[in-house]
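User: Okay, second chain of the day. Same drill as before: sequence in, structure tokens out.
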Amino acid sequence: MKPLSKSAAQTLLERLDGAKEAIARVIVMRGPTGVSVEFSVQDAHRGFDWINIIFAIEGVRDARLPDDVALRHLDMSEGISLVFTSEGIGLANARCDTLTGVSEAQLYVIGDTVKYEERPFKEY
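Assistant: Same drill. Structure tokens below.
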């Protein structure tokens, strides 16, 4: 997993077209304050082929994590947002630029740090 800074996140999301129309695949609890969320997205660096990308958030203090059935039906038309503030980092399945906006999404995680990993495309 690679640490993700605000500038690197912006570059990554541009490459993935903001993860618009992505497919939310799986949510994994990584201990008492860790969560990872995996999406299938199209990657401009690979000719818009599909890849899977995992975002791992540590120091989680707030989250809305849909169950497996609801996860498959999330509205991903707006893609995802990664919001970096002095209060924390937020990941959401909506376009937003504040942690308050993040906390209104169908799927969100707010924590202290975020890392990511690219993987080959896989359906679950």
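The longest strand covers residues 34-43.

User: Thanks, on to the next one.
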